[in-house]
Amino acid sequence: MEFILASGSPRRRQLLEQIGIRSFAVRPTDADESLPAGIAPGAAVELLSVRKGEAARATADPDALILAADTVVALDGAILGKPHSREEAVSMLTILSGRTHQVYTGVTLLRGEAEHTEHEVTSVTFRPLTAAEIDAYVSSGEPMDKAGAYGIQGLGALLVERLEGDYFNVMGLPLCRLGRMLIRFGLDPLAGGTGEEMP
């Protein structure tokens, strides 16, 4: 049975493989990523993951299991997207310095007409950063394609003092929650399921 990851994120591919799901197709979508004004971060990531999943379903086999996800960083309830410039990356990292923010990931699974969506939240605290440290990190190029202008799985790990919640959620896919969700669709990675054995 076909398993589709509706995301081009190499980190999500890596995390699926980490839990033993190695047979899957990668099909990123061009779903609408605009958000209603004032939407809460948890509702935002659920909405965006649903849009991505439904966009993938439109061209997929009806029996395929589709996984879609969306991750945002929020500070005091305000969503920080991906920086569009060096200056924006510096600004984001400056306001995150020495503070605790939240990372939200919405996860949607679809198979046929069945659809289920949840979200995970992890609190992340940055140590205080100097302007020189922020400049050096931005110069590495790592922040430019990541929500909140950092990647915890790379050099961004040097910025994180502590976190509370699912570490993998900060990478873009909350594995514990995903595992429980997959069971609802007949796939149990802990029991050795890889996607090929789905009924």
Automatic annotation (TrEMBL):
The gene is maf. Its main location: cytoplasm. It is found in: Cytoplasm. This is dTTP/UTP pyrophosphatase. One of its GO terms (biological process) is nucleotide metabolic process. InterPro entries: ITPase-like_fam, Maf-like. It is an enzyme of class 3 (hydrolase). The keyword Hydrolase applies. Keywords: Cytoplasm, Hydrolase, Nucleotide metabolism. NCBIfam families: maf. One of its GO terms (cellular component) is cytoplasm. Its EC number is 3.6.1.9.
